[in-house]
């Protein structure tokens, strides 16, 4: 990150101002969580920025639009504080200038365990059948380009994670003003 030193100085300045205006456990929690994840060094800052869905989508939009049957995509699901990974298909139609990506994951036991322990235990019966434990995670992404690269007009992404007891959906739409 080329401007890390400048960003770090502004963070320290803002932190001092917040400490003068506010106090309490909430502020200390936010400060500790943020500074541990982002502000301790340049590498941590880059990792923190890349954990935001917006950055992942922008990266997908700004890559060279091309076909790829083995494209890997990850998404940080904030309510579960976990990463979901997809191996999907990226396809580009040069006639319509549309890039599409689709990925689906089924029978992910690790994701099921995270869902079950993330405050949803009360929803699950003591014994869960194999069918009830199947969790599906899907991603659909579409970017409309004005030209064939770097100049997109709209990008829509939909993330879904669900099974019999848990439903999660996240939509992100980016548009470009003329």
Automatic annotation (TrEMBL):
| Superkingdom of source | Bacteria
Q: What is this protein called?
A: Uncharacterized protein
**Species of provenance:** Flavobacterium nitrogenifigens
């Amino acid at each position: 990150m080329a401007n890390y030193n400048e960003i770090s100085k502004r963070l320290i300045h803002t932190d001092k101002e917040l400490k003068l205006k506010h106090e309490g456990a909430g502020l200390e929690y936010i400060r500790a969580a943020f500074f541990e994840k982002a502000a301790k060094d340049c590498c941590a800052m880059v990792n923190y920025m890349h954990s935001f869905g917006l950055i992942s989508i922008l990266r997908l939009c700004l890559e060279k639009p091309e076909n790829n049957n083995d494209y890997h995509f990850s998404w940080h699901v904030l309510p579960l504080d976990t990463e979901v990974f997809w191996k999907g298909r990226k396809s580009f139609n040069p006639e319509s200038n549309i890039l599409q990506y689709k990925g689906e994951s089924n029978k992910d036991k690790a994701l099921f365990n995270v869902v079950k322990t993330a405050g949803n235990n009360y929803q699950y019966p003591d014994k869960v059948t194999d069918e009830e434990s199947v969790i599906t995670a899907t991603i659909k992404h579409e970017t409309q380009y004005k030209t064939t690269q770097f100049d997109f007009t709209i990008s829509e992404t939909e993330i879904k994670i669900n099974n019999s007891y848990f439903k999660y959906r996240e939509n992100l739409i980016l548009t470009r003003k003329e």
